[in-house]
Design a protein that fits this description.
Residues 385-449, 495-575 are annotated as: Disordered. InterPro entries: Phage_tail_fibre_N (IPR022225). This is Phage tail protein. Residues 521-546 have a biased composition (Polar residues). Residues 4-153 form the Phage tail fibre protein N-terminal domain. The chain contains six helices and 39 strands. The protein has 592 residues and is mainly β. It has five domains: 3-146, no CATH class; 157-283, no CATH class; 308-337, no CATH class; 340-392 and 581-592, no CATH class; 459-510, no CATH class. A five-stranded antiparallel β-sheet has the order 1-7-6-2-3. Strands 15, 16, 17, 18 and 19 form a five-stranded antiparallel β-sheet that branches. A hairpin with a 2-residue loop joins strand 4 and strand 5 (69-76). It is elongated and about 215 Å long.
Amino acid sequence: MPAIINTGAAYIAAKTGASEPVEITQFVLADIDGLDHSQPVSLAETLPAANTIVFQAAVSQKGYLTPDKVVYSLSMDTSIGDFHFNWLGLLASDGTLVAVAYVPRTLKVATANGIQGNSITRNFLLQFADAQQATGINVPAETWQIDLSAWLNAMDERERVSNRDIYGRSSFFGDGWKLEQDGSSYKLKPGIGYVAGIRIVNAQEMTIAAPSSIPKEICLDVSLQKGVNQAVAVITIFMGSPVDYVDGSGVQHYVEKISYIMPTGATSDRRTVYDVGELGLINFILTRTNIYVSQQQYASTTEHGIVKRSTKAQVLARADDQTYVSPKQLWAALDHLIPLNVGVFWHGIIDDIPEGWALCDGQDGRPNAINRVIVCAGDEYQPDAIGGEDTRSTSSNGAHSHGASTASAGAHSHSGQANDGGAHSHGASTASAGSHSHSASTGSAGSHSHTISVYNHTLATSRIPSHGHSINSVKLLKYPGYEWSNFGPDYDPGDADGATVTGANNGGGGAHNHSAGSNSTGSHTHSVSIGNNGTHSHSVTVNSGGTHKHSLSIDSAGAHSHSVSVNSDGSHSHSVDVRQRYYAAAHIVRVA
C-alpha cells in the first residue's frame, strides 16, 4: 500500500509551515529485483539505483477527492514501452522523494510491428491534513482517476479477512461438504462452509470418482475470482496434501482437507463442524453461551445458568457446588489448609517430590532432617534444635566390682551332668559311724545244698553218747601246734594241708574234724546278723571306669538365695547402639 515516506513528510511539513505550495511533479517507475510487493513500504525509502529506474515522466493529471485527499495520475499510452516495473515513486519539484508504492511486477508494452501495445494508468492517492489547500488542487478527481477495480478488490479482501476472523481457517455447518462413500464412488453432501473466510455453498449432492489409489487425502481448492459483475468463489476437488498457492494469474488459492479415504475405502471426516441450523450462527452462539437463562438461574453441575464467584467463607466451608473459585481464592484456601513451612512425610521417590514442596536437606534455609528422627518441640526442645547420636559409649570408671544377690526362689533342686573327664579314679573314706551292726536277710535261692566243714573241737565225754564212726573217707587236717601227731598209716607229715584217711573205723571221740554235705532242704532263706565291731571306718577306692560322666542331682535346700560378686575387668567402657526401630521416608516442606 502507498505511503508518504520520511523525506516526503518532512517536505510537506516544511512547505505547509512556510505557507508554500506542495508541488508534486513527477512519477518514477523502477524494476527492483526481489521486491516483495505484499510488504509495507519502508518509511526510510530512497530513490532506487539508476540502473533499476525504467521510466520517469511528469504527472499526467491531478485532482482532489476530499479536502485531505488528492490524486496524482500517470497515463502511459501505447507509445511507451517495453519494460517491467514494480516500484512507483512521486517526486516533488525540488527532487524530494515524497511517496512510494510497491506493486505487482507489471509489463508495459509499446505498439510495434503491427502488434498492439497496452495503455496503463497509475493513480497515486496522497492523504494528509488540508492536502487540497496545500497542493492548490481545485479540480475534482475525474472518474478515470479512481481505480475502481482496486477499490472492489479491497472490499472483497476486507470481507474475506473479516469472515476469517469469525470462522477461523475453516468451518462447516452440519453435513455441508461431508464426503461419504457410495458404492464404488463418493459423494459430497450439500451445505455451507467457510474456507479462509471465503463462503462456499454446495447446492446439491456432488458425485466424486474414486481415486486411483488409496489411502488418499481429499481437499477443497477454494479461490475468489472476478466474474463479469462480481467476485465469485471457485471450488475444485483436489486429492493430495493441502498446500496454499498463487496461480499464474496472481489469484490466491486456499487448499483445505475435508476427508481422508482409508485403505479400506471408508472415509474419515476431517472437517471442523458446527451445528448451525436454519436459525443461523447468532442463535447457535447464544444457545451455547446460555444468554437466554434467567439471571436468577445459577449454574450447577447438572443445570445451565449464571455462574457466581464464591466467597472465601464458601471456599473454606467446602459445601458449595454452584460457584467458581478464582486462582487467588484457591491458593488462599490452600494456604489455610496447608500453610507454608508445613512439613510432611513423602513416601515416594525423592526426584518426584511435587512442585511447591522441597526436601528438608538444609538448603535455602530449610531444616536438615536427613537421617534424623523428628522430635516434638516444646519445653525441652526448641524449634530448629538438633541433637542426638546413633551410638553411645559409657564413661570409664576404672577397676571396680559389682555386688548382687539373687532373690529367694523357694525350695528347689538342680540337676546337672559333669563333662567327660577321661579315664580316672576316685579316693573316698567313710566317716566313723561308731559301734553299730547291720541286719541282712538273704533271699530264697530255691532247692540247694551246702558243704559244711566242722573244725577241731572238744566235747566232754559225758556229753558224747556211745557211738562209732564208719568212715569211708575222712580228710585229716593239721591243727596248728600238733603237726607231730600220728594219725595213721597214710599220714604224711610233709602234707601241710592234711591227709585223707580212707577205710578206717574209729570208735573213739575227742578233738576231731567233720566234713559233711547237707541235703537239699527246698526253697528257704537265711537270716544273718553281723555283730558290732566297734567304732570304725572303711576306706574305699573307686577304680576308673574309663572315659565317663557323672550325673549330679542337688536336692532342694529349702527357700534360699545366692550372693554373686562380679569382679572388675579393669578400667573399661561400653558402646551402646541407641537407635530406635525406624522406617525411612523423605521429610518435605511446603515452600510455595
